Amino acid sequence: MSAENIKEVVKEKYGQAALRVIKGGSSCCGAAPTGEVCADPITSNLYDTREASQIPEEALQASLGCGNPTALAELKPGETVLDLGSGGGIDVLLSAKRVGPSGKAYGLDMTDEMLALARENQRKAGVENVEFLKGEIENIPLPDNSVEVVISNCVINLSVDKDRVLREAFRVLKPGGRLAVSDIVVRGEVPAEIRRNVELWVGCIAGALAESEYRSKLAKAGFEAVSLEPTRIYRVEDAQDQLSSKGVDVDAIAPLVNGKFISAFIRARKPKA
Ligand SMILES: C[S@@+](CC[C@H](N)C(=O)[O-])C[C@H]1O[C@@H](n2cnc3c(N)ncnc32)[C@H](O)[C@@H]1O
Question: How far apart are CA 175 and CA 5, in angstroms?
Answer without folding.
Answer: 35
